[in-house]
Amino acid sequence: MSFQIFWQRAVGPLACNCYIVGDPDTKDALVIDPGGDADVIGSEVERLGLKVAAIIATHAHFDHVIASDALREATGAPFMLHTADRPLLDWVQESAQIFLGLELPPPAEVDTDASEGQRLAVGSVEIEVIHTPGHSPGSISLVAPDALFSGDTLFAGSVGRTDLPGGDTDALITAVRSKLFALPDDLAVHPGHGPATTIAREKASNPFVGDGASGLG
Global pTM? Predict the structure, then answer.
């Protein structure tokens, strides 16, 4: 079984990291966090000759789903989201207007729920869904061979904010420490914003959830 990050780029108004990952042998791919620039993402899918098996958002904040509907229409791939974040999806257009004054099209309809322990088959690659609430009720992280896509749950040297609707500080800390920190130390972490890191680095030095952390707030 082989796995590849075909493409990654910060997209949209809040520089959300969008990833296209999957099986380099079969060219089956998963689009993670389509936070904008649908034309750019679609062009890369076409240039690389990929078959999009699914489009998945690690959570429903507007900066992670802006391009979801356009990509769903262009590729015919299902859009996936944890069921606990469906109420936030209904708030995408309003929240974009409130925070940035942006007029956005409606997000994609959810075709399939992404749930704890689910294994997504992308060619011969299996990618596991881990429910990591706290930044939002339905935040998820995705564990692939040799890579973790942590959304806005865990960043290099930080964690996701919990002061937005549905945020829960205790839930976020518990999710990171009990679920993400249980993964192999050498696992590469690819977050929803900012640079990549590793589980070991965040365990050792993350000021919010790492060794000796004082927590949030």
Answer: 0.96
